[in-house]
Write a structure and sequence with these properties.
alpha+beta; 10 strands; two-stranded antiparallel sheet; 22% helix; 2 helices; eight-stranded antiparallel β-sheet
Length: 139
Amino acid sequence: MSAINDTEAIAGYGVKGDRINASFESVWEAMLDSIHHPEKYIPVKNVKIIDNGDHIYREMLHEDGFLHKEKIFCDKEKGEFTFIDPGDFVHKNKYYKDEQVLEYWLENYQGERIPWKEPRVLILSAIKKTQELAEEQEK
């Protein structure tokens, strides 16, 4: 039996990034950038964004041809984005102010974490790009 290398590992029950050396405001702005410009963070194109006041509606086309549609709720006080997909899950992005780290995970509609089958390296890459943007804004 061979060990799973990092490129084969899945996100599982959540992925946390490294400590971010930036203010909460810079991190929040970088997180918002990832909402409005996902093509800078993940391999998607043809992004459509509609701000509906209490939430953002977003469509984007993945490399495999899947048209992803979601509602995104932003809670600055909690440092959290909630992505509601028409499927069976909720995607969460959260910044922990005390640890100064971002974590991404999936939940079911009962609020329980569920396994995420996306490649761990893809998620870490998106978190790292958000971190880099936040830290760059501090300079």
